[in-house]
Amino acid sequence: MDLRQSINRQTGVSLAIAKQVVLSEAKDSNLVFSPLSIHVVLSLITAGSKPPTIDQLLSFLNSKSSDKLNSLSSQLVSLVFANGGPTGGLRLSFANGVWVDQSLSLKPSFKHIVDTVYKAASNHVDFQTKGVVPREKQLPIHAIKDNKIYVVQ
């Protein structure tokens, strides 16, 4: 399946997600979210899942395999999230990562997918005692106020 067909298939999934969010969460309010971000995160979760979860996710994401989702996500990450460069162009980014308790480890095959396909961060954290994440490992906090985006670091 080529990239265009994959994108068309996933557009239907994104529209279904958007419809559900608008009808349930944003009925009488303003809401900004990214169906693409949600799709990429669900694809990443699919890559690390086993039956029956993987079957449910593949059905929801309208895909035949995790490999197809990984291929699509890899192409999208390379195309859409690339820096537009000095000549301009599209630049889009979002926080994409995996956090796992420090007492556990990621399977090497999943860690490889996280790093290479999704270009996501992976960090070990202390979920047991709910320790504070060191400042240098925290992601910036984004806030929208008066139609301006603020980044607190």
TrEMBL record:
A Pfam family this chain is assigned to: Serpin
Gene3D superfamilies xref list: Antithrombin, subunit I, domain 2
One annotated Gene Ontology cellular component of this protein: extracellular space
Record protein name field: Serpin domain-containing protein
Domain called Serpin: residue spans: 11-131
Alphabetized GO MF terms: serine-type endopeptidase inhibitor activity
Similarity comment text for this entry: Belongs to the serpin family.
Membrane-spanning segments: none
Organism: Camellia sinensis var. sinensis
Taxon lineage: Eukaryota, Viridiplantae, Streptophyta, Embryophyta, Tracheophyta
